[in-house]
Amino acid sequence: MAKKQFNTKRYKFPLPIHPIDRNALPVVSQYNPISWLQWLYCLYANTNLLPKKLTLTIRKDEQGWCHLLVEDEQDMKYLWNNGFFGTGQMSRSEPTWKFRTEKRLKVNDAGDKPSGTMDLEKVTEIRRIQRLAFKKERLRLEGELSESRSQNISAEQETQIIEEHREKLRVFRSDQLKELNNLKLTAPETRDEDLELYDDSGEIRSLESMELMPVEAIFLTFALPVLDIKINDLIKHFEFQHIEELKVLVRKYAAYHHYRSLKWCVRSGIKFGCDYLLYKRGPPFQHAEFAIMVLDHTESHDYTWYSSVARVASGAKKTLILCYIDDQGLTNETLLDLWHQGNLVKLLQHFKVAEVTYKRWIPGKNRD
To answer: Nearest 10 degrees: CA dihedral of 113, 91, 310, 259?
Structure first.
């Protein structure tokens, strides 16, 4: 419960725009001028305006790929806490490398998380080990059942053995969950290479950067201007070998903007073989419910492609959504002109979004 309350407070706002809390504004009296001054002060104090725009660093690697980075530690924390933007280059999602390193080396008692909590990477590692142990225990019990069947036991005895094995597995799984909840991390001794992580003041260096997807950078520049770069300057860094590459980016941004405007938390879906994952609130609260594939309205594939994508999505307990983007006859010349002008408002007016829910038909489950 404490962790849930902590997450609710930390991730209070779904976007880097904070509505004013009306309860924080005092009552205004028309006969008391001081109450007006107090009201204006509280209004200003609760607007949550950024003192400065977030710094975006753009780097290109040897292959010509454009990397959109946020390197300031506070900026990374702000983008993650207010919409779950970006991915830590040395983490699974949230940039927690410094927190994990400090916790491992016991440098600081990091205060960004409630006491006793573990980072996502460690939780995932422990869960994988527990799942492997659970499978081994289940195989062992299945072997015992097969050995008992070879001894020509009665049906009643077999049923009793199966129930006993089920109860053992339930107890085994319950003990694993208790072990995970009660586990406390202990830091190993400092290694020689760890000494290079400290700066002159004895603090851990901030070596991790947050990388934004191109659509995220465009959204945070065009839709919500919180980055210190203008949209015209940002799009100059995107280089395309062919017009089709630009069309793909514009289609993906149209879909991204569409779902963000509908209050969904949109994250990269490359881990599950799709374009985006949709969360109701965000990764700390629940798993993604939908896997989004962005397609052109004329695009089609053979049945093996649809089956492959749907199988991965359903295996991860996600509903596959085929998001078709219709450009309504937008010509290449108009697309290039509007793109180079940075006129995304007029450009997005040419697109329409249509969605199709794709589900696998399973004879054993879909009889009714």
So the answer is: 60
Q: Are residues 84 and 212 in the same domain?
A: yes
Q: Tell me the residue range of the domain where 3 lies.
A: 1-46
- Does residue 287 have an active-site annotation? yes
Please state, in angstroms and rounded to a whole number, the distance separating the CA atoms of residues 32 and 1.
44
**How much of the chain exceeds pLDDT 90, in percent?**
44
Kindly state the average pLDDT of the residues 27-32. 74
Instruction: Tell me, yes or no, whether 113 lies in a domain.
Output: no
Instruction: Tell me, yes or no, if 198 is annotated catalytic.
Output: no
List the catalytic residue out of 11, 253, 259, 279: 279
Query: Cβ distance 300 to 273 under 8 Å?
Result: no
Q: Are residues 213 and 64 in the same domain?
A: yes
Please indicate, yes or no, if residue 139 is contained in any of the structural domains: yes
Say yes or no: 247 and 358 in one domain: yes
Are 301 and 170 found together in one domain?
no
The answer to whether residues 294 and 255 touch, using CB atoms and an 8 Å cutoff, is yes
Handedness of CA 113, 117, 122, 125 (dihedral sign): negative
Domain tally, the chain:
4
Angle at 325 between CA 319 and CA 328, to 5 degrees: 155
The CA angle 167-172-177, to the nearest 5 degrees, is 125
| 244 & 317 share domain | yes
Same domain, yes or no, for 42 and 58?
A: no
Residue 62 pLDDT class (50, 70, 90 cuts) = confident
Active site residue 318: yes
Q: How much is the pLDDT for 187?
A: 45
From the list 106, 287, 340, 352, the catalytic residue is 287
Identify whether residues 33 and 77 lie together within a single domain: no
One domain for residues 41 and 58: no
Q: Is the pLDDT of residue 312 over 70?
A: yes
Residue 189 forms part of a structural domain: no
